[in-house]
Amino acid sequence: MSETLDLPTIHAAFAARAPIAASPTGGPFLAVRTTGVFCRIGCPARTPKLENCEAFADASSALEAGYRACQRCHPQNATEGPDNRVIRAVVRLVEASETRVTEDDLRRAGIDPDTARRRFQKRLGISAMNYVRLRALARAAKTLSAGGSVTEAQLDADFDSPSGFRAAYAQVLGAAPSKPHLEPLMVDWCETPLGRMIVIGDDARLYLIEFTGSPSLRLTRQFARLAKLHRRPLLPGTSETTRRAAAQVAEYFAGDRHDFSVPLEPSGTAFQKTVWAALQTIPYGDTWSYAQLAAAIGRDSAHRAVASANGSNGLALLIPCHRVIASGGGLGGYAGGLDRKRALLQLEGAPGFAGGTLL
Predict the structure, then answer these.
(1) Which fold is adopted by the domain 7-77?
(2) Are 163 and 125 in contact (CB under 8 A)?
(3) Least packed by Cβ within 10 Å: which of 59, 136, 189, 301?
(4) pTM of the model
């Protein structure tokens, strides 16, 4: 344990779930000798006794001391690596700018364009400048959907050439910029103690929120289904509902929120939507079996169909499919992974899961 760490202060912050200034290493971290686990400050786990605790400045030191990373708050991921720092710096610059960001703008902000390009390509599959271009076109699409003219949209996207703007718009959004109904769905992300979540929505409704640890094929299919069903492009950026969802998810993990108020737009069949509506009636801290869920919608024998609809939910946490477990008390399935499902039920204090040690 580092001599500079104040264990009583760190322990008190953990107990109060209080914010504490983080170092570049993501710490400090609180380790528990009796469980052999270490956590971030703010982890929803039960507060251990002070005499059983030890403090570490960084995750690597805790791991070297023989502690395991908590599976509820994932402290080993607390340090924001160089990829995330560059990506977030570019995103902040783009969101704060009213014109299209150039490579010179990146350099003036202390961001090397080549580094930004590599990091974006590695983590997001697109270059930094392509992200800038897509955000500019997203602004244009919003201008058109609000009734603005094509010229206003071109200026918002900071294109000098009308023909260049029309060509780029049509290539990305699939139609000429005279089509005002193609308001894009904005794709954002938020960080949680259980990993990153992808968040998709417009200013009116939320369309998707999923853990990125879900199988990549599942997320790809979710994206394709959204684009096809709603006939709207998916572009990087934030919206009113993605911001609200991120804030409410943070409150949920802090233990300050039991219900969500973000308007939702579930994408599924009539049967799936019926199942998802029933899921939203399961109280925080409670669980149902798949049989109970089937009975709740008047389809007592449709256990398999109900389980399939439950697994197809694309609005994790907000439509709480994690609260459905097997009849014998087992976890059942969960697209985000069973470790996450167990952690969510522990966080909510569900019967049979409350008060357990960290995974």
Answers:
(1) DNA Methylphosphotriester Repair Domain (3.40.10)
(2) no
(3) 301
(4) 0.62
CATH of 270-348, one of 2.102.10.10, 3.30.930.10, 2.60.40.1180, 1.10.10.10: 1.10.10.10
Q: Domain 82-173 is classified in which CATH homologous superfamily?
A: Homeodomain-like (1.10.10.60)
Query: What's the pLDDT tens digit per position in 284-299?
Result: 999 999 999 999 999 9
Query: In the structure, what pLDDT confidence band is assigned to residue 359 with cuts at 50, 70 and 90?
Result: very low
Number of residues that make up the chain:
359
Q: Over 9-53, what HEC string results?
A: HHHHHHHHCCCCCCCCCEEEEEEECCCCEEEECCCCCCCCCHHHE
Residue numbers annotated as active site: 39, 321
Parallel, antiparallel or unpaired: strands 68-69 and 53-58: unpaired
pLDDT score at 77: 61
User: What angle do the packed helices 270-279 and 303-311 form, to 10 degrees?
Assistant: 80
Confidence of residue 232 (pLDDT cuts 50, 70, 90): confident
Is pLDDT of 245 > 60? yes
Does 133 have pLDDT greater than 60?
A: yes
